[in-house]
Amino acid sequence: MIQEKVSARLQKQYAALFEIDANLDRLIRRIELLSYVNPINIEKEKQRFFASKYTHEPEFKYPKVKFNPFKLQRLFFAQRLERIEDDTIRTMYKDVINYYSNMIQCIETIGLAKSFYFNSLSVYGTPTERDVQNAQFILHYPDEPMGSDMEQVYSPLEAADYFADFASRYSFPLNIKFSTHIAAEAMVSNSSQTLLVKKNVKFSKNQLLTLANHEIGVHLVTTYNGLQQPLKILSNGLPKNVETQEGLAVFSEYMGGALTLKRLKELAYRVMASDSLIKGYSFADTFDLIHNKYKLNRNEAFTITLRAHRGGGFTKDRLYLSGLRKIYKRYQAEESMDILLSGKVALADEPNIRYLRKLGLALPISHQSFSFEQKLNTNSTLDFILNNLK
């Protein structure tokens, strides 16, 4: 009852803000870049690429866009932000509109090579020299012996059962759907609060633990924390939140005892593939770098290359390693992660979230990432690497 009275007071006090926030929520729900940038003919093009002895440039096809980009852009910029009297909050929403405008341009140009590539850069940026050096530092380590927990023996149905059991610790529902049109083995759809599980792959025990900590322990935690915030924009996502959110998710793998050197190398390969992309190399060239120079097996090398080159050039993957480095340093400084779990927010948003909390416009989190409560990592090599990333 008290909460309802407080909510009603806030709605009245910040009527214009809540109206604009609700308008943007309706618009943003129609935009989920990852649902459009994943090719629908991955397996077919993969076989063609392998049959050509790694020379054929894949011709990927993408889902049809289900909205009118021009009309949606116009509706974003039609919001009368001058009605928001608070300067800090008005600036936040201005940045949100520009961010999602760039996202629409990305979706509109998927498959159009350079057009998509440059739009992608505006959203996700490029690997820095430090990112590349960190990746190379990780890749110089010899592979560790493969244990039985790395054998891919679990079916998608068994994986779904594992995820359901893992999620039972949390007080939010777990919706699972199977898909053949995702590049990862599993991923969260924020707009539908659904865990998508790849249908045509096998999973290892370590993969299941990794994905559970990553997707459920962070991505779904921040999804449901965001949904409970007064302002819907914290659930939809503030600008540049990907690096922080992926850093938290990989850090959850580390704390949950799932992170391996192999997985850390995977993040390093992604940086190198993004670096290859921005240097102008083709799909075949990037694959050659990952498969022949760095000796990653061809199936995993193809996936790494696909993730970087999909859409025409997609640099999102370069953010996982830099995000992990920043979150790990925060952990070392014994700083709380709670603000960062408030929704889809970035490290840079922390002062604004604290400001919103003072006004009653942001609430403490309802769901915690359980892996953060106890460090289960026992691999001293990982500790050494993370302590020495630049």
Strand content: under 5%
Spatial extent as radius of gyration: 21 Å
| Helical content band | 55-70%
What order do the strands of the largest sheet run in, or round the barrel if closed? 1-3-2
Helix-strand makeup class:
mainly alpha
**What is the CA–CA distance across the termini?**
50 Å
Describe the structure.
This protein has one domain (2-387). 56% of the residues lie in helices and 4% in strands. The chain contains 18 helices and 3 strands. The chain has helices at 2-13, 15-28, 33-37, 42-51, 69-77, 87-108, 114-124, 129-139, 156-167, 205-227, 233-236, 242-255, 261-278, 283-293, 298-309, 319-332, 350-359, 380-387, and strands spanning 175-179, 186-189, 194-198. Strands 1-3-2 form a 3-stranded mixed beta sheet, with helices on one face. The radius of gyration is 21 Å and the shape is globular. The N and C termini lie far apart (50 Å).
Brief overview, please?
The chain has 390 residues and is mainly α. The chain has helices at 2-13, 15-28, 33-37, 42-51, 69-77, 87-108, 114-124, 129-139, 156-167, 205-227, 233-236, 242-255, 261-278, 283-293, 298-309, 319-332, 350-359, 380-387; strands at residues 175-179, 186-189, 194-198.
